[in-house]
Amino acid sequence: VPKKLVTSVSGCADDALAGLVSCNPGLRLLQGHRVILRDDLPAIRGRVALLSGGGSGHEPAHAGYVGKGMLTGAVAGAVFTSPSVGSVLAAIRVVAQAGAAGILLIVKNYTGDRLNFGMALERARSEGTDVRMVVVGDDCAFTTPGKAGRRGICGTVLIHKVAGALAEAGASLDEIVEKVTAVSKAMGTLGLSLSPCSIPGSKPSFRLAEDEMELGLGIHGEAGVRRMKVLPADEAVETMLKHMTDPSNASHLSLSPGSSVVLMVNNLGGLSCLELGIVAGAAVRSLGECGVSWDPIPRLWALWNDPSWLLDPTESRGIRVARALVGSFMTALEMAGVSLTLMVVDEELLGLVDAKTTAMAWPNVPAGPATTRRQEVPAPMDVPRKPLDETSTGSAAVWVKRVLERVCRTLLDIQDKLNQLDREAGDGDCGHTHARAAQAIREWMHSRPLPAAPSQLLSSLADLLLEKMGGSSGVLYGLFLTAAARTLCGRSDPTAWADAMDSGIDAMQRYGGAAPGDRTMLDSLWAATKALHSLRVPGADPLQVLEAAVQSAEAAAEATKHMEAGAGRASYIRSSRLEHPDPGAVAAAAVLRAVLE
Known about the structure:
The chain has helices at residues 12-23, 85-97, 111-126, 155-168, 173-185, 233-245, 273-288, 296-305, 347-354, 394-413, 415-423, 430-445, 454-468, 471-488, 494-512, 521-532, 542-559, 583-596, and strands spanning 27-29, 35-38, 49-56, 73-79, 103-108, 131-136, 187-193, 212-215, 226-229, 260-267, 320-327, 337-344.
């Protein structure tokens, strides 16, 4: 049985509603029932009240849509179970007693929901209440729907929004029923799943192979219309839209070029936000690749620039996505999947979609159309770099190149060793990262004259490593070299190099968060830096000081195998499992040795 984060299986629906109310001051629970109501019921006097609901497990539907401008109340059942007649009737009674000028029940087309809401409606009418019911069936899955008709799924949320805006504007019950009935006929939804879902305490309702996805399944895990191999997101979206708009499909949605639609990209519960964004972009492109306008001029321009779109049916819909709503609107517990809903709109209907609401689950996004055009702010202009004071020539240039070549050769020689050390506590790529740096430095120094000034040399190396090296190491070396370069500006005496090393270490600690003894590359560099302080002593032999610094770095690198990691990926590993030196410390010590030799 899959794991669930619940307090109890039997009480999970009640606990979820209680949590929702405790965190949202505008909501109230109806005593003795799984009913969520607006806290300002007196405000509905003289207006139509809207009630909806269904089984739990579809959150935020339906309680998340209770608020001014949407539902007056929502009735919940147990997980994937229709709410009781008694609870629906209690909700009707409480809004009727608050002075509602008629009540509309918005019901998804499932047998249990129709029966329980319908029975409550009949009893309320017998009590003299003016109550109607609209049944929403927006599922486009089945090419020949059976007697039960099309299932009610995520499009129901758009009906909540349209009806809520009308009620808030003072429309009559007859007007609202007429409008939402027409809207529901110009709307369609289709789901696609990568995994099943499971009711708390139960096993998954079905199984999908690792390489399978299912098209057209219901929000309770009911069977879809087709299983197929997992497709890339853009192909999956195109498959969905073709099925939804295929005229041979009796439950299809008719779309003509130039139509305007509201697109709802709904997370069925377990899809990552990253995947949802990819699907949303693919849907917008697939619907309106020819441009948001059907005017001939932009289409001729598109043809002139890329005639291939004439051969691609995915680029021939020409649908204007007037609004794109992306998020979790009606879920199926933890099902990893997505549904697409399209609702054909005109300006009047779009105004109802845009109308304000206090419902916590309705997305508060700026009103405006989606676009296939890449919306970009121009990149900032590069800050002009200070021109090189001079380039290195003669013996100085030969010496600098020789040193850099030794560093590169060393890093390439120890690539495998560093990767092996990194597998113990990281992702095994430390050697690859340093090899990228070595290759970048080689290409750079063979492509242009090297700066003669030490500060400009280090600054150029910092820029190179930040761009090419990658990983945390690239940023840390970049910080170190940038800070050191600033300190060396206009200086080149031995004391300046000691000061530059101090500046580099300070920058690494400030932004990297590591300290000496944390089992990182900082340990080697810190040990070398302390040894280099001897350069400040008058009469010190620079070569002897450098040799001592390198030996200190090598000893510190070896000592890291006895340290408990306090920073970096290794800090998440038990110290008893760390038996070898830190690869970053080993690499830093090796670089210093190569510089000295």
